[in-house]
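Late entry, alpha-L-arabinofuranose complex.
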Amino acid sequence: MKRRTLAGIGAGVFLLPLAACGDGDDSGGDGGGDGLLVGFAQVGAESAWRTANSDSVKAAADADERIAELKFVDAQQEQEKQIDAIRTFITQKVDVIVLAPVVETGWTEVLEEAEQAGIPVILADRGIEEADEDLYVTRLGSDFVAEGHSAGAWAATTFAADTDFRILELQGTTGSAPANDRKAGFFDELDTQGVAYTIVDSQTGNFTKEEGKAVMETFISTYGLEDIDLLYAHNDEMGLGAIQAIEEAGKAPGTDIQIIIVDGSKAGFQAGVDGKVNYIVECNPAFGEQLMDVIVQVADGESVEKFTPVEEGVFDASQFEAELPNRQF
Ligand code: AHR
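Prediction complete; structure with ligand written out below:
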């Protein structure tokens, strides 16, 4: 019998309508057997990070006897597909919905529908706007603002003596938490440290290699690279695409222009070992097992923190070679 024990989720954190939960109705969903039926609306498959994250969550769900079934939807970076997935999960009467929201806004209506149905929502990876924070129980993922600060701290030290420190920025998906927060943390750090800088341009590459390369090509044809000190790429894929564009323009990434990337994939570290990347801020996708624990806690009505950050590190050129064999994705 599938467990339906949702009453009293996180006292004072998220109140569920009792009629719709903990009612012993096991007819919903098709999970069958013991354990929880979980719906996961994933962002997509835009990066090695994302694929590693999906693999981590699926493997953890498969291995965890507390989980009867994980219904996984790849939303192809489209919010509408995630909203449709949530509505389908509600119809299927899942026990818990996990959402990795592609952007921060536009969730109120569908999350209210989940609330009305008595299904708790957990955010994995990305966050949503503060106005909707009562509509989810907890978030497990990265502290993207801290990642931005880490990148900014390295840039502030590296370019401390530069009186006109000139930056190109490749932002992640417009409106996404990591794009907003990595930007905010980075420039807040530079401002706090009193660094004089110019943002020469800042455009979205949508967290993909193809779009990162295309945007970098436009940057190069518009500004050249002679007067640019740093490229801050919000993820590995965009940084790797930009590296291709820089090389095709006959320049040396990592030397003619310094590069910071965020994620820490094997390919990103290899670029670092090859001297094409100068600093890597880790974003850790391997929180599948931790997520299963949170799902069970939430389903059992235990009190949970509103936000649990995953552990992450930072790496400079002196560490790339030793760290490369440790990278998992
Ligand atoms: O939300 C995490 C970010 O999403 C990762 O940095 C990026 O690679 C992915 O697309």
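Residues 144-283 form a domain with the Rossmann fold fold (CATH 3.40.50.2300). Will revisit in the morning.
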